Amino acid sequence: MSETVLMVGTRKGLWIGRSDAEREEWRFTGPHVETDEVYSCLVDTREGRVRLLAGASSMWLGPRVTWSDDLGATWQAGPDGGVRFEERREAAVERVWQLVAGSAPGVVWAGTEPGAVWRSQDGGESFVLVDALWDHPHRERWGAGFGGQAFHTLLPHPEDPDSLVAAISTGGVYRTRDGGASWAPANEGLRAEFLPEGEQYPEFGQCVHKVARHPARPDRLYLQNHGGVYRSDDEGTRWTSIADGLPSDFGFPVVVHPHDPDTLFVFPLGGGDGRFPPQGRALVWRSRDAGETWTGHGQGLPAPFWVAVMRDAMCTDTHEHAGLYVGARNGTVFGSLDCGETWRPVVSDLPDVMVVRAAVLP
């Protein structure tokens, strides 16, 4: 019987949950990388092994990518944490916001704060800066935003190792088709609501919160913006709003069902300074028709619920009946085995949850 693993990164360490295919009972260990802030996780099951990677940040050691090949029993990190700017760049990595397996063997992509993208050829043990994006002429005009300037979304094309979609907070979506040698913005149709009237559809400068891609339909992307939910059917060349029917178009995560490119999930929040679910009611909103219509589901979620869910704190596993997971800033991770209709706690009383990642082990 297959095994399920769930990585939960928090502001004070990492927890690892394991369960069978039924996912009724979970066994958690942790904290791993104790006291570190963990903003990114990856379960890499390629090449006949299981490698867990975490983007950790220590007040003493600084940011680092650490990995385990024995499901968390031991951890390693490369020299200087594996992700470091050369001195000539006069910059320092503050956090590793994203870790994603590439479509070529051994390749792992990392996105950091300040806004940079990095490539590893050795499974995440060492990384090299993607110079063309760091040197892009737009970079000096990317704002920092309230959450900092970071490449928080990296979406390798599942069939083309030279194609990658990347999103940076307060910079927008960028795309490469030549392995990172050149990059172009892909923001047509995305609204920047915080800009003056008449200037709200710039070439770049949108505050993108998260982008999702389905592996079986890689040209389709879904995007949660700072005020807006969108779909693209041409890999970001043009975006169309799909926010009608949602209680709020503000939120952080967007997740696509692993087996159905028409099914997606969001967790709307109120905009402004509140940033909690509208009316304090926790609902995961689901669309089964690529965003044409929406329904909210919250059976089993607590009420009232004045807690946010961050951009990487919602994910799915890849079982035939896929599990959906939501991690909240109150330290609870909830799970659903019926496509988001009913929920129950998977683990509780952890520190502030920043990222959850699930995988089915071979």
Automatic annotation (TrEMBL):
InterPro entries, alphabetized: WD40/YVTN_repeat-like_dom_sf (IPR015943), Xyloglucanase_GH74 (IPR052025)
SUPFAM superfamilies associated with the record: Oligoxyloglucan reducing end-specific cellobiohydrolase
Name of the protein this chain belongs to: Exo-alpha-sialidase
UniProt xrefs under CDD domains: Sialidase_non-viral (cd15482)
Domain of life: Bacteria
Organism: Nocardioides kribbensis
